[in-house]
Amino acid sequence: MNRIHGPLPKQGGIGDLKAKPRLLGEDFSKVLNGIASSSGLKFSKHALNRLAARGLTLDRADLEKLGAAVDAARSKGANESLVLMDELALIVSVKNRTVITAMSAGETKGGVFTSIDSTVIA
User: Residue 34: is its pLDDT beyond 70?
Assistant: First the structure.
C-alpha cells in the first residue's frame, strides 16, 4: 500500500477549495504535486475542478485507500476504472495513476459510465 508523506492543505482535504479558490493556481499545484509524488497518484485539471466545484474532499486516509484501489485494479489488468469510495465516485486511469473526474456518490444515480473496464469498491 502506498504511504503518503508530506503536507496536505490546512483544511485537510484536496477538494476543500471553496474557502481558498486561489489554490487552483500554482500554490495548489505544489501541494498536489507533493502528495502525488509520494502516493504515485495524479489528479487531472478536470478532476481538481470537479472536486472544488462539488465541495468534495480527500484526506490522507482517502488517498491511501484510493492508491490501494488503483493497485488492485492494476493487478487485475484494468485500464480505466470507476472507484467507489464511501461518498465518492472517481474515474481513474489505472495505467497513468491519474484521477480523471470525481463526483459524490449521490450524483451517480441514474448515470451511465462509459469507457471503463472495471469497478473497484474501496
Answer: no
Residues 6+ apart with CB under 8 A from 32: 14, 43, 48
Q: DSSP code of 114?
A: -
CB 121 within 8 A of CB 106: no
Mapping DSSP to helix (H, G, I), strand (E, B) and coil, where does residue 98 land?
strand
pLDDT band at 57 (very low <50, low <70, confident <90, very high): confident
Predicted model pTM: 0.72
CB-count exposure of residue 22 (10 Å: 0-12, 13-18, 19+): exposed
The residue with cell 487552483 is 24
Nine-digit cell string for 119 = 469497478
What confidence tier does 47 reach under pLDDT thresholds 50, 70, 90? very high
* Contact predicate 51/14, CB 8 Å: yes
